[in-house]
Amino acid sequence: MTDHDHSHDHDHSELSDIQLRVRALETILTEKGYVDPAALDAIVESYETKIGPKNGARLVARAWIDPDFKAALLQDATHAANSLGHVSPVGSHLIAVENTPNTHNLVVCTLCSCYPWEVLGLPPVWYKSAPYRSRAVIDPRGVLGDFGVSLPDDTEIRIWDSTAETRFIVVPMRPEGTENWSEERLAEIVTRDCMIGTGVPEVKS
Amino acid sequence: MSNTIHDMGGMHGFGKVEPEPNEPVFHAPWESRVHALQRAMGAAELWSIDGGRASLETLPPHIYLEASYYQRWFLGLEKRVVTYGLVGADELAAGHSLRPGIKLKRTVTTADARKPPVRGHFERPAAAPAKFQPGDRVRTVEMNPATHTRLPRYARDKEGVVEAIRGCHVYPDSAALDVHDENPQWLYTVVFTGKELWGDAADPTIKVSIEAFEPYLLPA
Fold this sequence. Notes:
The complex is a heterodimer of chains A (205) and B (220).
Chain A: H1 18-31, H2 37-49, H3 53-65, H4 67-75, H5 77-83, E1 94-98, E2 103-108, H6 117-120, H7 125-128, H8 130-135, H9 140-146, E3 156-161, E4 167-171, H10 183-188, H11 192-196
Helix pairs in contact in A: 3-4, 4-5
Chain B: H1 29-42, H2 49-57, H3 61-66, H4 69-83, H5 89-94, H6 110-114, E1 137-140, E2 159-169, H7 172-175, E3 185-193, H8 194-198, E4 206-213, E5 217-219
Antiparallel strand pairs in B: 1-2, 1-5, 2-3, 3-4
């Protein structure tokens, strides 16, 4: 934020002194007993450390090596995720959608920023940005091009607009050349973008 | 609100998507505080998740576009704490509490906050059977409510196919106005062709689905 004359009224259309206003609001809410700063610290830590795309990558890697798990994941992703003890808990209503040679899935929230954060962490800025939200539903190939992803001309692209409290995770196709890989090694190539649909897993030779 | 700036699907002119390599979870400490304040105040259940969304959607369009994501969250939260009588405008101006707070239904303790965050549950018992089944052709309603809705403009008055029933869920159009008015409705995944949404010039290989609540749908 830039230096600024703070003598003016706190006009709500003013964005430049946001840091001060956030601090003031936290002070007021704390003084009133609505929030506890230590609890706020713990919330921040939780979002920074306990959730993230590693949780989702574990689900995908397991699905790649275990057909029964894959079937369960595609049937009810919340239940399947919670059946794995080593992934942090997932609330309702997670839906896994599978990429195939014929269909590529892409997830967006055109209205706000809905995102499966229990399995992918908090969404990146681009996911919440106007360019992505506006274009994903009308020009998905253009959007994929912004990520350096090019699909065959006849691949169907299915866009999932997250307009309710259902949440979507893409199960990408397992790349060739990974036949003997362990689950842990497979999980390493499942990036966040692969599970949104703006990336595909890559095997570096 | 309904036809406000947040409803961006299909708009032109915003430019390229710009991924940031190795993006941090938060870009500044104040962003993390806004995030935590939002979570902590949500626990009081004075507003629904859609009531929260509505407070962002009703920001003036130029502010909505100029603000960063967490700036928007902050402006919405600041508006809500005043609207719901938790904080006075005089207190925001003073930067301090000037009177005792009201009693909240629930506050977040440090012990609560240390648990892994898990989403809330939005599925509710149904008052009636689902009207539609997978495979049914449906047409979305034409509507332009002045209040919150989750039927995007680009998918109004369009014909599509029900692909799945997702259960009966809290209805955002009602709960946004009153957290106690959950008015549960059946929720469906409805798929549209690119041509139906965008016309003859649409990419013939795309299909778009929305998650549509039953009041958004008519038999086609």
